[in-house]
Sequence to fold (692 residues):
Amino acid sequence: MEVMNKYISIKSHIDGVPEESDFELRTELLSVSLESGSNDVIVKNFYVSVDPYQINRMKKYSSSQEASSFAVAITPGQPIDAFGVGRVVASENPAFEKDDLVAGVTSWGDYSIVRGGNMLNKLDTMGFPLSYHLGPLAFSGLTAYGGFFEVCKPKKGEKVFVSSASGSVGNLVGQYAKLFGCYVVGCAGSQKKVELMKEKLGFDDAFNYKEETDLKSALKRYFPDGIDIYFDNVGAEMLEAAVANMNAFGRVAACGVISEYTDAGKRAAPSMLDVVYKRITIRGFLAADLMNVYADFISTTADHIRTGKLHVLEDISLGLESVPTAFIGLFRGDNVGKNMVKIADA
Amino acid sequence: MEVMNKYISIKSHIDGVPEESDFELRTELLSVSLESGSNDVIVKNFYVSVDPYQINRMKKYSSSQEASSFAVAITPGQPIDAFGVGRVVASENPAFEKDDLVAGVTSWGDYSIVRGGNMLNKLDTMGFPLSYHLGPLAFSGLTAYGGFFEVCKPKKGEKVFVSSASGSVGNLVGQYAKLFGCYVVGCAGSQKKVELMKEKLGFDDAFNYKEETDLKSALKRYFPDGIDIYFDNVGAEMLEAAVANMNAFGRVAACGVISEYTDAGKRAAPSMLDVVYKRITIRGFLAADLMNVYADFISTTADHIRTGKLHVLEDISLGLESVPTAFIGLFRGDNVGKNMVKIADA
Fold:
């Protein structure tokens, strides 16, 4: 049996700001009969995640030998791996049966062949909407939870600054920090986002970085007693300004560098004198290294959502064709909350 | 009773590369009779330490309100605090008696008034020369030992890079790392220093950074399998190059930033993409925060020196008048090993 499958791919490597013309919608005839013993699984996608870090896998550099530490490179013309939620339509893997609801690494397509069933799991919705299993109950959530609690090691009452704070990870970091008992200020790139943070997410304060001419002074205003924890999603000038405003023994969780992803020449140059004298720790991390807190993360987060303490912020585009626009929008700051595309009804 | 005391001071704040003309030798009549109950102590200095970080305390910035995290500012015309070893000539402090041998914060002078006996300790030489108690058995040693073992958390066999590796701290870091079972490469600014590291200190390799046009490529040559630990004494381009060559879960101990101390515009801009993807930790530290390992540090280091496993590298200038030259020389890379000035015979 065969199905007509549509998927998004890149036409060639992308080394700057992504544009619609960098992407194409491809069509293939997909055989739904898998090789016996292959452990492969075919998934029909309902939702797929659209994340900024994927741009790094689209760069020419990512397929170079030097980039061994980067995630697997994306090959032009091929399907693009992405986190997704869907249903099994065929399985040669003993862990999955036809019609199982699954979450894991699928791809930007109607259907995904998941080789060996790698990084795919059966999904227990726990009564939550499917989309929650791409955001607060998936990697965005783990990144925020593990990044905040394990990497930042917060103490109650500490002053926390979050950049891209209305984004998929940032909004959760800010909410976790508030629930934990910290003072939280977020920044983002529009007044609408600032209001959302203050009114809906319960941040102590928030500001629009685009309206600030001097980020160092801005942070001094929002943190007259200094910053203890900076959850960094952007890098560049914001990291420099945060380090300049940091207290002794401050911690920076380096989660993302979105301002540098599309501009190879852009670099943060935090004062190393500050780093030494204020004994600052800057620590890069990936959610995949935080699986030790996964069980805690899921139970805590599910509880917070159920009791209404944690607000779920989603930005859902409709239809596979909207993936490139949703992706490009990330670098223009279009999204509010977890960015994803709904491919089909469950 | 009064003595004629000579001491070194700065004429005004120093904001660039220090020069002889920035310093002056001052003379004062010092009363050796202390106020009863003051807890003050007067020390006749035998050796005083001359360290790069002191330049930061001489900057105009250091006396500004913003610089609260910096060490206490040095005031023009006043004595300059420095670590020293000497003998008590007068004491109103119950912890010290006349003629006690002491080590701690004294000053660049023939005599030092140590107010309240703060940061002064009676010295047990353990049979070692007095000068050892300014270097490997004092803060340089603690910085190297604590910085390497506590901040870098090394594993045997890991690849360690040390900059300023023939300096007071760097040479000890490299030696501790070798004794612990790591692969160690150091860099310094002359061929003589390179030979010393390879032949006397037992480093696996060493190079002269002044002979390299591309530090990133140089480190790739010396670390074909990547760097696990970088003990950073210099900052700037070397930090960038080290981060670019770092392995996953690499650690940078940010100990000093000598290349930036005299050039406020100079900044390291390590790739934050590398920091995130390779989960690198950059951690600033000061020896004063590592007192928890002090007992271990002293016993281990004393043993290593006694058994000849740890080579003591000293650069001793003679006479109080030579302090400015010895200090200025630090920023030209003149010194090899622990830089100090012998003020008087014990």
About this structure: The two ends of chain B are 21 Å apart (CA to CA). The longest strand of chain B covers residues 81-91. Chain B touches chain A through 36 residues (CB under 8 Å).
